[in-house]
Amino acid sequence: MFADYHVHTDFSDDSIYPMEKVIQDAISMHMDEICFTEHVDYGIKFDQEPGKKIIYRQNEPLTNCDYPNYIKTIEKMKQRYGSQINIKTGMEFGMQMHTIPQYEALFQKYSFDFIILSIHEIGDLEFWNQEYQKNKTQQEYNKGYYEAMHKLVSNYKNYSVLGHMDLINRYDLADIYPFEKIKPFIEKILKVVIQDKKGIEINTSSKRYGLKDTTPSLEILKLYHQLGGEIITIGSDSHKPEHLGSQIEESIILLKELGFQTFCTFDQMKPIFHDL
């Protein structure tokens, strides 16, 4: 099973990669299954509505996925390419505690196969531009990040896996915060995730971001396995043709080395286990 379970297209505000081209490229790579996971970031981005002016930040529209058109396009792509590749409908929920009701309304409105629960911002302050980290010590913003994650997994259950679980590392200008200092937080989060029969992902973008470790880190992957975690997906976090399918085979080898026996795809929010 060759599957990419974290893929963005031009339905996400930060990609111009057309969905049909993504599917054609995936087929040419002999991919068995692909899951689209377009961005939704309530709090800092807005739904596209008829007559509503779109706000831009530099050249990127601050908009969430155009849901009706997205669902319609996926159905069209299934009819056109379904005999060559399995196409799954997903979303990446960039969630905060105060935006939970908006995500729950969206989840109830459409039929999804897969939901990535990610944290891209806290208090409407983003990580990539250092707004969240500003005027905080390294300890404060790491602690705040994992505390926010624990609150979310304790209060929101309609998701499949936690996305790029230690994303804060990608934007930590003070280098990587020692794992032992965040281990208690990570352990609390993973125990809730496992108890709820949810999972985590390996996000293979770590290499292209120049990180020395995997995402999540090897220490987190090991701890998840030690705690009995079994649900794990592999996704490239693709936004461009050169990202699609990247490092997925290497991640399968890594999971085997860490003692995992299976990885997952999803159908109608239910995990399907595949031997590594």
TrEMBL record:
Coiled coil: none annotated. GO terms for biological process: L-histidine biosynthetic process. Pfam families: PHP. Residues 4-205 form the PHP domain. It comes from the Bacteria. It catalyses: L-histidinol phosphate + H2O = L-histidinol + phosphate. Keywords: Amino-acid biosynthesis, Histidine biosynthesis, Hydrolase. The keyword Zinc does not apply. Pathway: Amino-acid biosynthesis; L-histidine biosynthesis; L-histidine from 5-phospho-alpha-D-ribose 1-diphosphate: step 8/9. One of its GO terms (cellular component) is cytoplasm. GO terms for molecular function: histidinol-phosphatase activity. Its EC number is 3.1.3.15. Belongs to the PHP hydrolase family. HisK subfamily. This is Histidinol-phosphatase.
